[in-house]
Write a structure and sequence with these properties.
Structural class: alpha/beta
Largest sheet: 6 strands, parallel
Number of strands: 6
Shape: globular
Order of helices and strands: HEHHHHHEHEHEHEHEH
Helix content: 40-55%
Length: 254
């Protein structure tokens, strides 16, 4: 059983403590699904349904059996796609095009998130087990695509999904990231373990699903746990701005 998780601090209580650790982050790395938009949008339910439809059609089986296979692939390989590629040589492009052909109208732009990204110092990168197309579709709907310097997707990762450590190292090298000055934000706790091992600050967007909580009490180091990411980022961004202004004022007074 996963260990109980203490309640996350309210955004208003964060700035002073978080600013000291986060004010010098040069790069912010964000997961996409259920991270940059809330899980309550239920967008991933559409993806999940299309994954099972793809499996059912590919193997000529019913949806119940397709779901059983999907769960095994996810459990054994980290993503369904990885299992399909390893065991059945499925074309990843055809798979991704099919499963991400979804309606994103349920995702609503957040002025708080947009403003926080605008004020937050440092480069921003989306790191997703999905595709660039999916990231652009969702981030475009959120109105924040142009706030990101890059999208590191499953193809860029060589179709090796999180939490395998190898694509994390590839991301760091390809985008010139100093892990000790980077922060990674994720809704799946175990995906933060390789980031922490590299020296990144880690932020878990709390989820209640078993796969989101897995590893929380078993050695995965999480520096910050948040329930409302836009408000938390806004508080951190405001603190960073305040400290920059305070520093300038102190320097001018010397």
């Amino acid at each position: 059983m996963t260990a109980p998780i203490p309640p996350a601090p309210s955004p208003a209580s964060i700035p002073a403590a978080a600013a000291a650790a986060l004010r010098d982050r040069a790069v912010w790395i964000f997961d996409l699904d259920n991270t940059l938009y809330p899980a309550s949008c239920n967008l991933f339910a559409q993806v999940d349904r299309r994954i099972n439809e793809f499996i059912a059609e590919h193997f000529g089986i019913g949806m119940d059996e397709a779901r059983v296979r999907q769960k095994r692939f996810f459990r054994d390989y980290g993503t369904t796609l990885r299992g399909l590629m390893v065991e059945h040589d499925v074309d990843p492009t055809a798979y991704m095009d099919y499963v991400h052909d979804i309606d994103v109208a349920g995702v609503q732009p957040s002025a708080v998130l947009t403003g926080a990204l605008d004020r937050l110092p440092g480069r921003k990168i989306i790191y997703t087990n999905g595709s660039v197309r999916h990231a652009e579709n969702v981030a475009g709907r959120l109105g924040i695509l142009d706030r990101f310097d890059a999208v590191f997707d499953i193809a860029a990762a060589g179709f090796v999904p999180k939490p395998d450590p190898r694509p994390y190292s590839t991301l760091v090298e390809r985008h010139g990231v100093d892990p000790t000055r980077a922060c990674m934000v994720e809704d799946i706790a175990r995906n933060l373990a390789p980031a922490h091992a590299l020296g990144m600050t880690t932020v878990w967007v709390r989820g209640e699903q078993d796969y989101e909580r897995a590893g929380v009490g078993a050695g995965v180091h999480i520096d910050h746990t948040v329930d409302d990411l836009p408000s938390w980022l806004a508080a951190v961004a405001d603190a960073a701005v305040d400290m920059t202004e305070d520093g300038r004022a102190e320097k001018a007074a010397e």
